[in-house]
Amino acid sequence: MTKPDMSYPDEEILTILKEVKTIALIGASDKDDRPSNEVMKFLLTHGYDVIPVNPLLKDQEIAGRKVVASLKDINKPVDMVDIFRKSEAVEEIVDEILALNHSPKVIWMQLDVIDKKSAKKATKAGIKVIMDRCPKIELLRLNVVKR
Question: Which of the four CATH numbers 3.90.650.10, 3.40.190.10, 3.40.50.720, 3.30.70.20 does domain 10-141 have?
Fold first, then answer.
């Protein structure tokens, strides 16, 4: 299966990573060997306020941050939702995002997470969408310094 073209200009990625401050990380894991755990810790050390979202770990802590069950349980607006789930789960997540009182500026789908239909729906609602990318990799590649 070939992936759709998802070329994002470096300037667009850079602007997002510089403007975003609060990130809801869906699919957060408490296991140190999981990519979502590694990325969450990396983002925290680079000045981002990361809120872990995982219904199975509700009220536990990951990297000192209390886990919430869903986006609606977050009591403040978030700038970006980072999705660490399979592509099949994205449509439901985007619908949940669109039902929030405060929509994020960005929906970021991790490596191999692609849902063009949901991306189009979010874009129509005024939300930027990045698919099949990792913010940690992009921060390192673009040499964005620690805040």
Answer: 3.40.50.720
- Rounded Cα distance between 43 and 28, Å, is 12
If one counts every other C-beta atom within 10 angstroms of the C-beta of residue 108, the result is 25
Sign of the CA dihedral with 141 first, then 4, 39, and 49 last: positive
Domain ranges for the chain, please list them: 10-141
d(CA 135, CA 146): 13
Look up residue 68 and give its DSSP letter. Answer: B
| pLDDT tens-digit readout, 58-112 | 999 999 999 999 999 999 999 999 999 999 999 999 999 999 999 999 999 999 9
Torsion of CA 33, 34, 39, 41, to 10 degrees: -50
Question: How far apart are the C-alpha atoms of 9 and 89, rounded to whole Å?
Answer: 26
Give per-residue pLDDT as tens, 104-136: 999 999 999 999 999 999 999 999 999 999 999
Q: State both tokens at 18.
A: 């510089």
